[in-house]
Amino acid sequence: MPKYNRKNGFSFWRKLTNSLIGSFLVLGIVFMLFFAAGLASEQSGGTGEKTNSAQLTEQVVDYKNLVNKYLADHGKEQYTGIVLALMMQESGGRGEDPMQASESYCGERECIDNPELSIKQGVAHFSYVLDKADGDVKLALQSYNFGPGFIDYVMERGGRYSQELAISYSAEMYEKLKSDIDFRCIRPESEENDACYGDIKYVDAVLEYYEAAEEVAGKDNLLVLQDGQ
Question: Which residue in 3, 66, 72, 83 has its CB near the most CB atoms, within 10 A?
C-alpha cells in the first residue's frame, strides 16, 4: 500500500483550488462582457429585432442621389430618407422598377423597365399623394400603397391617418373587388380582418427602415417625423 505523502497532498489541493478559482474568474469575465454588451445595446436603443430588418440594401443606397435629384424637381429634397425607406419596402432597390411605380404610370403592372424612369415616376407619385394628404407623411405612404382614393376616405373621417382607417378601407375595397380580382392576404392580420386589399401595415413596414435611411440621406435631407405624423 503506497504511503500518503502529506506534502504532495497539500500540493494537490492547492492546485485544485487555484484551478477552480481560475475557472470562476474566467466565467465571471465572460458574464461581465455579455452584460456590458447587452447594456450598450439597450442604451443605444437596439433591441436585436430591428437591427437586421432595418438595414438598406446597397442597391437602395446607390439610388440616393437619383432620388434626391427628382425630389428636388418637386421642392421636396427633405423627403429623401422617406423615399429611400419606401423603395426598400417596395423592392429592396432590385429590378427594373425599384419604386414599383408602373401602376401609377400606365395603369398596369410591369410597364416600367428602366430604374431611372421608375424613380422619376415613383417620386412624382409620392409628391402628389403627399400634397393631396396635406403633408401627412403616414397618410401619403399608405396612399402610395392603396392609391389616392384612401386620402379621400380619410378626409371624410377626420382627416388624419390611422391604422384602423387603413384596415377598414382595405376591408371595404376587398369586399368590393374580390369577385373580380384574385387577392392574396399578405399578413395574418389582413386575413383575420378580411382586409386583403394592399398592405394594411405598409406604413409601419416602411418606417422600419427610417433610421437606416436617415444615416444614408443625412440630417439636412431628411424629414424628421413629428409626433402624430
Answer: 83
Q: How far is CA 125 from CA 32, 49, 83, 89, 136, in A?
A: 52, 32, 11, 16, 15
d(Cα 73, Cα 61) in Å, to the nearest integer? Answer: 20
> Do 221 and 83 touch, CB atoms closer than 8 A?
no
Whether the CB-CB separation of 27 and 19 falls below 8 Å is answered with no
pLDDT tens-place values along the chain, 229 residues long: 555 455 555 555 455 455 545 555 545 554 454 444 444 444 433 333 444 448 999 999 999 999 999 999 999 999 999 999 999 999 999 999 999 999 999 999 999 999 999 999 999 999 999 999 999 999 999 999 999 999 999 999 999 999 999 999 999 999 999 999 988 899 999 999 999 999 999 999 999 999 999 899 986 555 556 545 5
Do 157 and 184 contact (CB within 8 A), yes or no? no
List all residues 6 or more positions away from 99 whose beta carbon is below 8 Å from its beta carbon.
86, 87, 90, 91, 118, 119, 121, 122, 123
Length of the chain, in residues: 229
pTM for the structure as a whole? 0.75
In angstroms, the Cα distances linking 111 to 28, 60, 107, 148 are 62, 21, 9, 20
